[in-house]
Amino acid sequence: MSKRRYWASAALAVAALAFGQPASAADEIAFGICQSTSSGSAKFATALWKGAEIAIHEANAAGGVEGRKVVLVPMDIGNTDPAQARLSMRKAIQVNKIVSLLCWGTNVMVQNGPMIDEEGILAFTTAQGVNITKKSKLTQQLDAVTTFYCRVAVAWIRQRHPEVKTFGVLYVNYEYGLELRDMCEAEFGKHGIKMVAAEGHPNAPPDLRAQFTKIMQAKPDAVFLASIGGGTVAQAIRTGRELGYEGIFMTHGAGDIPDIYNLKVAEKNFFYAGHAVPETAPKAVFESAKEYGGFVGAGYDFAWIDMMLARELIKEGKPVTGANMAAKLRALGTVQTPINKFTFLEDGKTIRPMAIFTIANGEKKLEKILGDEELK
Amino acid sequence: MHETILSILPYGINGLALGLNVAIVALALALIWRTVGMLDFGIGAVYLASAYTLWLAKSAGLPLVVGMAVAIAAGVFFSVLNYLVVYRFFIKRNAPLFVLVVVSLSLFVATENFVAAILSAERFYIIDSILLGWTLLGTRLNVAQIAKMAISLITLGAIAMFCLHSRAGLAILAVADNPRLAQGMGIELDRAYIRTFAIAGFIVSLAAIPDVAESGVDPYVAATPLFLALAAIIIGGLGAFKNPVRGAVMLGLAFHLAVWAFASRWQEVIAYSFVMAALIIRPQGLFGGVSTPTRP
Amino acid sequence: MIYVVDVLTYAAIMVIATRGYMLIKGLGGLLHLGHAVFFGLGAYAAAIASQTFLPAGAYPISLLCGAIAAAAGAGLIGWPALKDRARYFMIITFSMQLIFITIVINLGITGGPDGISGIPKVGFGPWVLTSRPVNLGVIELSASSMNLLVALLLMGASFLFCRRIIESPYGRLVRATREDDLAVEAYGRSATNVRLSIFAIGAALTGIAGAAFAHYFNYIGPSQFELELVILFLIMLILGGQYSIVGATIGVFVTMALLEGLRFGLEHYALISTDAVAHVRKGIFSLILVLVLIVKPSGLVRERFSNYRRPAPEPGADKPAQAISLVVSEPAERNASLKPAALSCKDLHKSFGGLVAVNGVDLSLMEGKITAIIGPNGAGKTTVFNMLSGFVAPTKGEVTFKGKNIVGLAPPEIARLGIARTFQDVRIWPRLTAIENVLASLRDQPGENAIRLFAQPRVSDSKEAENIEYAWHLMERFRLSEKANQLAGELSYAQRKMLALARLRAYDPSIMLLDEPTSGVDPKRLGEFFDQIRGFAESEHRTICMIEHNMTVVRELADWVLFIDEGRVVAQGTSAEVLGNRTLMSAYLGKREAESV
């Protein structure tokens, strides 16, 4: 068989797959959510999906959005690889006709920003990098950025642990960890709390004892854990306690997963900043968050907001496109979902409530919700 | 000077502990490499099988000791299963080393992902309080670390004794050196291989159990020990079984001393540069040894 | 649909990289587990170059930078990895990839963990690709289609390049080195250099692919060049068939089709919960790979071998193939004892650890004469040959050729002086055809040098045509014409032995060391071997030395016989003298055999 025939058949196969599939029916509305097989993201990716599913099922059970069924499309981004993400997103956009997507990963979002704008998709992100929304007009933060996480943490420290005068940072040696370290140094510094130690670690460290030994030499009153995903947070807390560290441990949303809820060692002198899922939230979400972590709420919010925007557009007789949804979103500005109240700014930044949690009895315990006034 | 020694001590001791931890898996890898002639990434799958079995046993309410026994059995079982169901097919057909590597890697990746799909990527804990520990020379070592160090040294000794003094062990070594000759002398290749995989599975579960008891289990726990073990073999070489152990200890020390001497963000660079340097200077391993053995 | 175009573009770029892998692994036989590094080096070099000194529209130069960076990486890694006959190649390349990522994440110039973004798009001179459609006169192409076109053009060019390499004398030499590097060295070529060159060439091609990727995706980051990519390359190569350039192409498309197909299949038809799709996709993909390897272990496409056409028989008589000899030989002289020895050794010793293999051997080989070395097994005969040909260094003693001591020279150097040998275990190159075995050995092959192959194509090609014609002459002379295009490994034992002689003859050495040239050959066929060997000595005036166990052969051919036992020359003389020595022969052959000699 000549090589040309091989090429032709291979190309045909791919084309058949692409065109032969039934695209989403015209009366469906589709949203995409990223999925990843890398150890860090895999943990909260499930939570996002579960939350969105709850919202979708609710809506579809009640007849959909103005009679149109809502579907979720998974987008496999591999190892949080921007190139893989581009392929997945393109496919979801062109074949499944999604109008909005939810994804994470600083590089994934930044590098695909232009494509998102070009295709006119409203993209929400739970990546906390401050510069993500700068590169894309249609990308909106759903989570707080690193600066805010640090601000929330220091606000709590000042309220509950005023004795803390120095702190250290254990960060993952990736762009995200570096940003958290720098932001926290600045935010804590504003209130006179000095960063006395900062140690980096690779993505999947075999152990953190070396780093901790060094941090402890500086005797910080508190340690901020700036890791990707939840696994390293648990490891860090255990290691620190074992080596005799008795100060406060604090972290960002990486602590908002069951890995941490179930960690007995985290029940003392530990808190994290995360998303509140109040008891007034739909019961299904509340229960699911106990099992999968706080990002269930974010997933729910994403789907709920998207559906709300779609509904408004349909009522106004406008086509449901990502660009229209984004315009509507910014026009509305403030949105109250069954769980949270968001203020979506034009530049893609978002003001949203954050909460402080500690761990008690194998569950997360809400200590306080901090509204925007406290965080400005 | 006194201060320097004091300050370096915790790094040295922890480095040693990490090294001996890695050494266990390195021994298993080395055993299979020398006898069967393949780089068995499937050991990662065995590690996961053992780890999750421990957790499942504990969730089912079994006492920890029973759980450990079951986990060890699982490790042995899965390792042998890998051989019987997958590898043997390729070995019998004289598949090249390349293909065996790809197959074992695929096995590992498949296991990781199917476990994540079925049991979720969440981390489950076995023991969730701080482990008991003792302070040695100003450094605290917990019971899992000490267990791993002990296991490592005992396993090394046991393998040496087994291989050099028991019939089955000598058979395995003979097969390692010259499979055809061994066959000609009546040593049944298949049985020797099964025994090898069983022993390797046993060893790997001995590494997985304390690890998992200490830090919990999720689908990704096997990757790091596996690659560190590989690095240890590269550094140490394979000539005698104690070589990968030495290599592992040097690697562990490199990881920790790098943090003591430089910034911790350079930890990986330094440790792997060490690997690279070892390769450039002495590719057969710092302590000498066989690399890619001939396959029958 | 842009999605399909994107997938095809990505696939085309991966094809180029996989072809580079094929050159290294399939052609070169190097077990290379760090291919992602070359791809990454190419990508980073292009990115850094484009951001520092390259102007816009310098795409081809950027590709060149990628090629150079990757080739340099290959040189750097190749040197330690190829030591000791490349025994540690696999491990070294695997760790190379572990280290590459770590270094890239931690350096400033590579953008650290953030990677490098804003890499310019494809551009040639004044024209630079933007997001607007491109008007090509006849048609208008969208930006993505333009990218695809460029990628396909590169892919086509890489195909031509690879095909040229594979079908050239250089490609043949690389394959020979893959099959048996010792034999390659015995015929004057440095195996390490050959391997290093193909490693660098394969790397360079992959570097070009990496550079193309950088300009296509406009962003690169360390997470893209990790173990996942290595595994992907491995899969693509093995699936397609590592010995075929077409296979490398198909492997990529099949793998991509599988991956994308799984993407579709799993969401629409899956019984699994959708949040696990990514994991299941990866898991199923891995299992399918194993299945494919079970069913088709050598991949989808098998190796293709060049079919050499026999030149048309010349009008006129069937001339007996006259040796177009390059050996400037003097007419045989009557008074042989006045001539200096062609090759001699004095007081040759060799110990391996505590074992003394050769314990003081002197010998002199005369031009035009056949010397036989006989003796019991383990007497040190082959070790002597190994020392004469440079494969083993003597512990003591000297070997003299044309008045100079050649001890310490590497085997290829000694071979190039005109001293060549055959091997006890034959060592023809099994996956080269018979005629290729002969061709590969010929001395004057400008096409064997990769640079000359491309710089002086006409010279290379015309000389190759000449060589092919000459090779056919040899095949006829050694009565192997019928088997010329058959794989040497498939020939019968006797045919392989004859082929070994043909290969030796093709090299045209003045000194031939034959290690058991007739062992295992059916007695009925011995006559052909006698004719050939005698012809070497008498008609062609070469110097022959052979190790033999078959006394018939010795009696028939040898002008001079040395009996070596326990590393020493115990007796020497004419064959009548030595073979007639009853005591000696009894001890050597046993009483009954001795009587029949």
Description of the molecule:
- The termini of chain A are far apart.
- In chain A, strand 12 (341-344) and strand 13 (350-351) form a beta hairpin.
- Chain A has helices at 3-20, 39-61, 82-94, 106-119, 146-160, 175-190, 209-217, 231-242, 258-261, 283-292, 295-315, 322-332, 372-375; strands at 28-35, 69-76, 98-103, 122-125, 139-141, 166-172, 194-201, 222-226, 248-251, 270-274, 334-336, 341-344, 350-351, 354-360, 363-370.
- In chain A, helix 5 (146-160) packs across helix 6 (175-190).
- Chain A is 45% helix and 22% strand.
- The relative contact order of chain A is 0.13.
- By secondary structure, chain B is mainly alpha-helical.
- In chain B, 74% of the residues lie in helices and 3% in strands.
- Chain B is built from eleven helices and two strands, in the order ααααββααααααα.
- Chain B has a two-stranded antiparallel sheet with strand order 1-2.
- In chain B, helix 1 (2-36) crosses helix 9 (223-236), helix 2 runs parallel beside helix 4 and helix 10 (242-261) packs across helix 11 (267-281).
- Chain B is globular.
- Chain C folds into three domains: 2-225, no CATH class; 335-418 and 510-597, Rossmann fold, CATH 3.40.50.300; 427-508, Rossmann fold, CATH 3.40.50.
- The chains are: A alpha/beta (376), B mainly alpha (296), C alpha/beta (597).
- Chains in contact: A-B, A-C, B-C.
Detail the topology: elements first, then pairings.
The complex is a heterotrimer of chains A (376), B (296) and C (597).
Chain A: H1 3-20, E1 28-35, H2 39-61, E2 69-76, H3 82-94, E3 98-103, H4 106-119, E4 122-125, E5 139-141, H5 146-160, E6 166-172, H6 175-190, E7 194-201, H7 209-217, E8 222-226, H8 231-242, E9 248-251, H9 258-261, E10 270-274, H10 283-292, H11 295-315, H12 322-332, E11 334-336, E12 341-344, E13 350-351, E14 354-360, E15 363-370, H13 372-375
Parallel strand pairs in A: 1-2, 1-3, 3-4, 4-5, 6-7, 6-8, 8-9, 9-10
Antiparallel strand pairs in A: 10-14, 11-12, 12-13, 14-15
Chain B: H1 2-36, H2 43-59, H3 64-92, H4 97-119, E1 133-136, E2 139-142, H5 143-165, H6 167-177, H7 179-184, H8 189-215, H9 223-236, H10 242-261, H11 267-281
Antiparallel strand pairs in B: 1-2
Helix pairs in contact in B: 1-5, 1-8, 1-9, 1-10, 2-3, 2-4, 2-8, 3-4, 3-8, 5-6, 5-8, 6-8, 9-10, 9-11, 10-11
Chain C: H1 2-27, H2 35-52, H3 59-81, H4 83-86, H5 89-106, E1 116-117, E2 123-124, E3 127-128, E4 134-135, E5 140-141, H6 143-167, H7 169-179, H8 181-186, H9 191-217, E6 219-220, H10 227-240, H11 245-269, H12 277-295, E7 343-352, E8 355-365, E9 370-374, H13 381-388, E10 396-401, E11 404-405, H14 411-417, E12 419-421, H15 434-441, H16 450-455, H17 457-477, H18 493-507, E13 511-515, H19 526-538, E14 543-547, H20 551-557, E15 560-565, E16 568-573, H21 575-579, H22 582-589, H23 591-596
Parallel strand pairs in C: 9-14, 9-15, 12-13, 13-14
Antiparallel strand pairs in C: 1-6, 2-3, 4-5, 7-8, 7-10, 10-11, 15-16
